[in-house]
Amino acid sequence: MKIYFNASDTPSGTSDHVYQKIISYLHTHHHEVYEKILGEHIPPLSKIDQHYIHSWFKQWNTYISECDVAIIEGSHPSSVHIGFEIGTILSRNKPVILLYRKDYDPVFIHSLFSGKLIKSEYTNESIEDVLSWCLDELKHIINRRFTFFVSPDIDKYLDTISRKDDTTRSEYIRELIEQDMQGHHQ
């Protein structure tokens, strides 16, 4: 899979290890990763000119068009460019995985909703398991997306079930539908 990866700006070194762990995990699982947006790939400001900016934007735009999914590390304090990118990518009908560290919920970004947006909290120890789960969940989104509105009571019930049964809301609903399908075919 072609994966676009970007992360929120943080003081140098605070999250670099996790970012590299994410990239390493993706490479280990044979994904092509576009990561040139990260600070380590950007030249010093004094070396950036109009030609560089146009060239970089053209490359970014091409990759967003060709990628299968975007993985965004958006832990608070995430900047406005992360939210803008997520919105831009979703508007192109591409799925986005939004990761954030435990206790660093990206409040402004976290309120985004889309049937193609997977949000997941992680710790340094759980990042690989979380990535694995997100990529598995992505298969369901890529297969077929079905969006519908639910009342606040149903929404609350789905949250309770997902916490109690350690499942996602979509897994629970899919299981109910599969059970119903089996019942109608007997």
Give structural attributes.
single chain; 186 residues; Rossmann fold; 2 domains; 14% strand
CATH architecture of the largest domain: 3-Layer(aba) Sandwich
The biggest beta sheet is recorded as: 5 strands, parallel
C-alpha termini separation = 39 Å
How would you classify the helix and strand content by structural class?
Answer: alpha/beta
CATH third-tier fold name of the largest domain: Rossmann fold
Task: Give the strand order, joined by hyphens, for the main sheet.
Answer: 2-1-3-4-5
List low-pLDDT spans: none
Q: Work out the helicity level.
A: 40-55%
Rg (CA only): 18 Å
CATH class descriptor name of the largest domain = Alpha Beta
Order of helices and strands: EHEHEHEHEHHH
Beta-strand percent range? 5-15%
Mean pLDDT: 82
What would you note in describing this structure?
With 186 residues, this protein is an alpha/beta fold. It folds into 2 domains: 2-146, Rossmann fold; 148-186. It contains 7 helices and 5 strands; from the N terminus they run βαβαβαβαβααα. A 5-stranded parallel beta sheet has the order 2-1-3-4-5, sandwiched between helices. β4, α4 and β5 form a beta-alpha-beta unit. The longest helix is centred in the N-terminal third of the chain and has 17 residues, at 50-66.
Give the topology, please.
Elements: E1 2-7, H1 16-28, E2 32-34, H2 50-66, E3 69-73, H3 80-91, E4 96-101, H4 107-110, E5 117-122, H5 127-143, H6 152-164, H7 169-184
Parallel strand pairs: 1-2, 1-3, 3-4, 4-5
Brief digest:
Helices cover 49% and strands 14% of the residues. It is α/β, with parallel strands linked by helices. Strands 2-1-3-4-5 form a 5-stranded parallel β-sheet, sandwiched between helices.
